[in-house]
Amino acid sequence: MAVQSTYGFSDLKITLQHPAKGQLQIQGEGVGSITFAMSEDASAHDLAADGSVMTSKIDAPAGSVTFSIQQTSSAHIWLTELFNYLNARDNPLSEFAKITLIAVGTHMRTEHICNNMSIKKCPDKPYGQQTWEFLAGEMIEN
């Protein structure tokens, strides 16, 4: 008999945090999808004068995180408040990239840790799911 495995979004626990605004914990509620993407390649090939290939390992931990979140969810409200706080004129620039994220997938046994995050832009207004995009200075996957 084949062993089957089923993934449910409630298996993923997400914690977003900012020192000035506290933290948001999400476990399935209001989130349609989340994508973690590295910004750079992990290796590159260059062609030497003699025709041999030189391989370079690139240690570039930056990336992006994209959420699709329902507009009526508490997560969207928290993120909107955070965006407004971070973009206030009197807010110090030092606050801007202090968002951290930890996402733990219990069923898949994965963990994503993102540091030095900033919100790329306020989401468009489709009156449905909102897409929140973040840039991360460091992404770690365990």
Task: Tell me what you see in this structure.
This protein has 142 residues and is mainly beta. Helix content is 9%, strand content 49%. It is built from 1 helix and 9 strands, in the order ββββββαβββ. The protein has one helix spanning 74-86, and strands at residues 12-18, 22-26, 31-38, 43-47, 53-57, 63-70, 99-105, 110-121, 129-141. The protein is globular, with a radius of gyration of 18 Å. The mean pLDDT is 88.
Q: What's the Cα radius of gyration?
A: 18 Å
Q: Helix fraction? A: under 10%
The quaternary state of the protein chains shown equals: single chain
E-strand count? 9
Main structural class: mainly beta
Average pLDDT metric: 88
**Relative strand content:** over 45%
Strand order, sheet with most strands: 2-1-7-8-9-6-3
Number of helices: 1
Please outline the major beta sheet: 7 strands, antiparallel
Distance between the termini: 31 Å
List SSEs in N-to-C order: EEEEEEHEEE
Give the uncertain stretches in residue-range form: none
Give the helix/strand layout.
Layout: E1 12-18, E2 22-26, E3 31-38, E4 43-47, E5 53-57, E6 63-70, H1 74-86, E7 99-105, E8 110-121, E9 129-141
Antiparallel strand pairs: 1-2, 1-7, 3-6, 4-5, 6-9, 7-8, 8-9
Spell out the key features of this protein.
mainly beta, 1 helix, two-stranded antiparallel ribbon, 142 residues, seven-stranded antiparallel sheet, 9% helix, 49% strand
In short:
The chain is mainly beta and 142 residues long. The protein has 1 helix and 9 strands.
